[in-house]
């Protein structure tokens, strides 16, 4: 009798133990993979940034935060940091401004909506590298098809050498950045619009609300969380975005279109200043972390 | 009926400027890819004749086939590995509460936020330390790791919407835990797994900076790197070959994408934004 009860009890404990262990076993592979690829390099970057490093990447003495001080004293770094701000705000702001009306239009029922949606999503399917390569050719000063198209449309007179100076290259890069960020943003907004129940609009229409009123009282409040998520994800993508600037100008001419990612890439793989490049990486990591923390707090406050 | 016609006209008019800008690069690709070599540098839109043979020459001249194989391999590998580690983790996160779930989710959030470029120096050194420079498989595993966070978030929020009763009903009818999982739960979760797979595949297909840094020899280049290498730091750039190559690399993905984009809208509405 007692033995049977014991057996049942021990089976129950075994079951409990299995239930406690099973989820960990299921989660572990994903954790190990991500940890190996994220935490290890992060640790390595910390080592690089706090030690004196030879040209071949060997660690010498511990230097504490000296490398960071060197980095902040560097005018190229400060210029790239500032330009990263302009780049991020410009691309994300422009993307949101274009995407909202586009999503509202694509959410309406009209002839050819399926086709219009496919066209608007299209840049998403093309790799940034390919997009940038094609634009590099289209922007070519003598033979580029952008110049001939703009001349045919009567918008410019002579050929413009777009990529030769930052004054034209950087705004163009921002426009391309906006263009490739629109599909994802529109998709998020369309998802949000699809979640707005139709009967709300019907009720509002019965009450005699106009289109603008329906937008401000129904659509916008329900869409707000989607705007937040799109903003946050776009800031992260755009802040880290490398191919457009790298393929078009490699940060040139004379570092005048560098943002932090291209600046750090050159430091590491062109001039071999691994320590400083690692420090720039960690500064970027800190900025991203602060931004994410801010976002998480915003979300928590809204949920509370 | 007439109202819809008017609405359609307005909609297309509003979208027209954006559509022109979106289609412009495709037009550039197409026109340049079809031009005879000697007309490439003249900035006229219409070639005197259509040279389809550019595509054949391009295949040889750009090493397209080998790069295509590398791209397919790396994208399939990373999609497979992402799902392999992501599905169990998402299942556990959605169904079996475990100690440390909060920190685990935060850890995923951080990996989601860290794009490869921030870690590229560390990744380069770790890969070099293991003798994995130039290894296409290593690049595939790195992509898988960077996609895991998104996959787990996405799958978990979808898994949570599948009613538990369905699995429990299967248990009552005598199915084991594993049987219930494979014949009841996973089939219901197919849409989310499809969206996750497409995302991972496209991310891996398009990734630039890791491939640029870790793949050192032409035999291991993926398509974006191969095409970039034909443009960067060369005196003469064969633009008609390169545009033919970008067109060929772009069209299949664009077609598949166009076909699947409604699932993406639905999937994102269900998953990522919860």
Instruction: Write down the overall mean pLDDT of chain A.
Output: 88
Mean pLDDT of chain B: 88
Distance between the termini of chain B: 37 Å
Strand sequence of the main sheet of chain A, in spatial order? 1-2
What is the helix content of chain B?
over 70%
Oligomer: heterodimer
- Contiguous helical run count of chain A: 12
Largest interface: A-B, 100 and 102 residues
Provide the helix percentage of chain A: over 70%
Low-confidence stretches of chain A: none
Main beta-sheet annotation of chain A: 2 strands, antiparallel
Plain-language structure description:
The complex is a heterodimer of chains A (304) and B (274). With 304 residues, chain A is mostly helical. Chain A contains 12 helices and 2 strands; from the N terminus they run H-E-E-H-H-H-H-H-H-H-H-H-H-H. Helices cover 77% and strands 2% of the residues of chain A. In chain A, helix 4 crosses helix 7. The N and C termini of chain A lie far apart (53 Å). The mean pLDDT of chain A is 88. Chain B is mostly helical and 274 residues long. The longest helix of chain B is centred in the first third of the chain and has 33 residues, at 2-34. The mean pLDDT of chain B is 88. The interface between A and B is large, with 100 and 102 residues.
Quick overview of this protein structure:
With about 300 residues, chain A is mostly helical. Chain A has helices at about 1-50, 65-75, 75-105, 115-125, 130-140, 145-150, 165-195, 200-205, 210-240, 245-250, 260-270, 275-304, and strands at about 50-55, 60.
Key features of this structure:
heterodimer, A: 304 residues, mainly alpha, two-stranded antiparallel ribbon, 2 strands, B: 274 residues
């Amino acid at each position: 009798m007692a033995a049977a009860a014991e057996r049942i009890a021990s089976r129950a404990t075994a079951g409990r133990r299995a239930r406690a262990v099973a989820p960990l076993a299921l989660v572990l592979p994903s954790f190990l993979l991500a940890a190996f690829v994220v935490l290890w390099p992060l640790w390595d970057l910390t080592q690089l940034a706090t030690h004196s490093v030879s040209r071949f990447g060997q660690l010498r003495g511990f230097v504490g935060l000296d490398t960071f001080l060197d980095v902040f004293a560097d005018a190229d770094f400060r210029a790239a940091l500032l330009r990263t701000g302009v780049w991020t705000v410009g691309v994300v702001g422009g993307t949101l401004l274009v995407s909202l009306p586009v999503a509202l239009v694509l959410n309406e029922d009209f002839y050819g909506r399926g086709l219009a949606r496919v066209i608007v999503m299209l840049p998403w399917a093309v790799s940034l590298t390919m997009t940038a390569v094609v634009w590099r050719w289209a922007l070519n000063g003598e033979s580029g098809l952008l110049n001939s198209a703009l001349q045919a449309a009567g918008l410019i007179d002579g050929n413009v050498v777009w990529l030769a100076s930052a004054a034209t290259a950087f705004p163009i890069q921002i426009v391309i950045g906006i263009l490739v960020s629109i599909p994802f943003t529109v998709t998020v907004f369309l998802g949000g619009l699809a979640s707005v129940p139709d009967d709300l609009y019907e009720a509002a229409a019965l009450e005699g609300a106009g289109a603008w009123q329906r937008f401000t009282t129904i659509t916008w409040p329900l869409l707000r969380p989607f705007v937040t998520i799109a903003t946050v994800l776009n800031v992260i993508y755009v802040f880290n975005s490398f191919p457009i600037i790298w393929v078009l100008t490699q940060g040139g001419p004379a570092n005048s279109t560098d943002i932090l990612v291209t600046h750090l890439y050159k430091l590491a793989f062109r001039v071999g200043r691994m320590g400083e490049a690692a420090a720039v990486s960690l500064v970027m990591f800190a900025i991203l972390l602060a931004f994410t923390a801010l976002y998480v707090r915003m979300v928590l406050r809204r949920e509370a | 009926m007439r109202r819809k016609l008017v609405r359609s006209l307005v909609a297309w008019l509003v979208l027209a400027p954006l559509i022109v800008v979106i289609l412009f690069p495709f037009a550039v690709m197409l026109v340049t890819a079809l031009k005879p070599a000697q007309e490439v540098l003249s900035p006229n839109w219409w070639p005197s004749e259509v040279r389809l043979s550019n595509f054949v020459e391009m295949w040889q001249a750009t090493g397209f086939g080998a790069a295509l194989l590398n791209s397919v391999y790396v994208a399939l590998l990373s999609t497979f590995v992402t799902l392999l580690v992501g599905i169990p983790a998402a299942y556990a996160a959605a169904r079996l509460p475990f100690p440390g779930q909060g920190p685990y989710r935060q850890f995923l959030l951080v990996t989601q936020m860290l794009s490869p470029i921030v870690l590229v120096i560390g990744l380069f050194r770790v890969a070099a330390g293991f003798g994995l420079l130039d290894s296409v498989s290593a690049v595939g595993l790195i992509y898988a790791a960077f996609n895991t966070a998104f996959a787990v978030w996405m799958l978990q929020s979808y898994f949570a919407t599948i009613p538990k009763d369905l699995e429990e009903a299967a248990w009552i009818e005598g199915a084991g835990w594993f049987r219930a999982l494979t014949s009841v739960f996973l089939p219901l979760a197919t849409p989310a797994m499809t969206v996750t797979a497409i995302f991972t595949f496209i991310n891996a297909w398009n990734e630039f900076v890791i491939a640029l840094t870790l793949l050192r020899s032409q035999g291991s280049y993926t398509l974006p790197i191969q095409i970039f290498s034909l443009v960067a730091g060369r005196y003469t750039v064969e633009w008609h070959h390169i545009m033919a190559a970008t067109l060929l690399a772009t069209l299949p993905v664009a077609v598949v994408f166009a076909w699947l984009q409604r699932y993406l809208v639905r999937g994102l509405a269900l998953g990522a934004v919860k």
